[in-house]
Amino acid sequence: xxxxxxxxxxxxxxxxxxxxxxxxxxxxxxxxxxxxxxxxxxxxxxxxxxxxxxxxxxxxxxxxxxxxxxxxxxxxxxxxxxxxxxxxxxxxxxxxxxxxxxxxxxxxxxxxxxxxxxxxxxxxxxxxxxxxxxxxxx
Length: 138
Hints:
Layout: H1 21-24, E1 43-46, H2 48-52, H3 59-67, E2 72-73, H4 74-81, H5 85-97, E3 101-104, H6 108-111, H7 114-125
Antiparallel strand pairs: 1-2, 1-3
Helix pairs in contact: 3-5, 4-5
């Protein structure tokens, strides 16, 4: 409102995150040495060293390593932890470089197979939204 008071009714956007993504990644956006982003289907899994060093990691890094006890894709990890995809990409690359994560980048030829992409889409649709409701299908 003009007087500085909030408008009546619920906030349509919701509360702002406590920490902006660029602060978590120190402003970095190109997570790999090649400058190309890590593909969303890249599988990540915690190493024994990473699990042993959990208490020495920052909040987001701790959550990533702890969530990666079993292999999962970068996209799944971002959705599960409710972190921006690019934040997970940057932090996963940092954790890989430190020896806390093992990263498996899929073969490019396989990822362009339509049946694989269809299974990924179906898997993403099977993840309920924040209200526990499954997304609509085609």
